[in-house]
Amino acid sequence: MQGLRRIDLHTHSDASDGTTSPGDLVRAAAQSGLDVVAITDHDTAAGWDEAVGAAREVGIELVRGMEISTKHSTAGQHGEGVHLLAYLPDPSHRGLTAVLDQILRGRDDRLPRMLARLRERDIEVSEDDVRAANPGTDVIGRPHVADALVARGVVPDRRSAFEQYLKQGRPAYVDRYAAPLTEAIDLVTAAGGVTVLAHPWGRGRGRSLPPEEIGRLAEAGLTGLEVDHQDHPPEARAALRGIARDTGLVATGSSDHHGLGKTDHELGCNTTEPDEYERLLDAAASASGASGRATPTVVRP
Ligand code: AMP
Ligand code: FE
Ligand code: FE
Ligand code: ZN
């Protein structure tokens, strides 16, 4: 019998707000004993090619994905941010690239507004300072603003930057564009990929994703739920596992590794059961076939 495969389906490189290059991320994944890793940068496929090269070099199985910034509201509620993992979509699908471009423009529009808020507090950080924090990416996020604040000695680390300035309710928090959740699910499906809700009940999230709503999303084409994630306490994991079972959704577990950018998210700290991974890949194969798109394959050693 084959030994248990270790599978981590959610990681970030410096193509978004991780701190290692896509190649180094994949090499670190192999080094840490993972058999399968997915690269899922925020709102971009920019790290894919480099990751594929590294996966072939070190002989690890690689899944190409991304984590899309979406927003969801149930009746009468203000839209809440939801992160949607998308696996194996055709990255050249017009509708998908259009939405990713719109999200990136929303990030670019937000940056000067965040910096103006900091300036009101006599903290001078320029756009160049922020972009210098990670010259390789087009996906400018709050973590890069945090890095610029660290570089200026305003705070000791990313976590304190969020606590003091950047998280919702703090002075430099500014909202930005995110795609409507069900629209994003439809687009990924049309692009031949499959979708998984990232950390659905993490960090005070989940008001817009009660169990009934997750059931509706399953009927609307969602494929999976990220159950095992560091932002989920044991009770949340148990409840989400039950929902996945009841609704037929695939249950995943992942690190959401960000390199040195997030502590307590080491590669492989949560993993996905091999059977669940196979179900995810089966769904991806069906979606690919139904879409008629040229979707990326899983890179196998
Ligand atoms: P953005 O998408 O630019 O609004 O930034 C969101 C990203 O910031 C998330 O993907 C995390 O990587 C990071 N993040 C969010 N909240 C925190 C926090 N409280 N501490 C550290 N990093 C965080
Ligand atoms: Fe992130
Ligand atoms: Fe996320
Ligand atoms: Zn993530």
**CA-based shape:** globular
Number of distinct beta strands: 8
Q: Residue share in helices?
A: 40-55%
Mean pLDDT equals 96
Low-pLDDT stretches are none
Question: Rounded to an integer, what's the Rg over CA atoms?
Answer: 18 Å
Largest sheet: 8 strands, mixed
- The rounded distance between the terminal residues' Cα atoms is 19 Å
**Which small compounds were modeled alongside the protein?**
adenosine monophosphate, fe (iii) ion, zinc ion
Beta-strand content bin: 5-15%
* Number of distinct helices: 10
Class by SSE composition = alpha/beta
Q: Report the order of strands and helices.
A: EHEHEEHHHHEHEHEHEH
Plain-language structure description:
The protein has 301 residues and is of the alpha/beta class. It is 42% helix and 15% strand. It contains ten helices and eight strands. Strands 1, 2, 3, 4, 5, 6, 7 and 8 form an eight-stranded mixed sheet that branches. Strand 2, helix 2 and strand 3 form a beta-alpha-beta unit. The structure holds adenosine monophosphate, fe (iii) ion (2 copies) and zinc ion. One fe (iii) ion (FE) binds next to loops. The site of zinc ion has 5 residues, from loops.
Q: What brief labels describe this structure?
A:
301 residues; alpha/beta; 8-stranded mixed sheet; 10 helices; globular; binds adenosine monophosphate; binds fe (iii) ion; binds zinc ion
Provide a brief overview of the structure.
About 40% of the residues lie in helices and about 15% in strands. The chain has helices at about 20-30, 50-60, 95-120, 125-135, 140-150, 160-165, 180-190, 210-220, 235-245, 275-290, and strands spanning about 5-10, 35-40, 60-70, 80-85, 180, 195, 225-230, 250-255. β7 (about 225-230), α9 and β8 form a beta-alpha-beta unit.
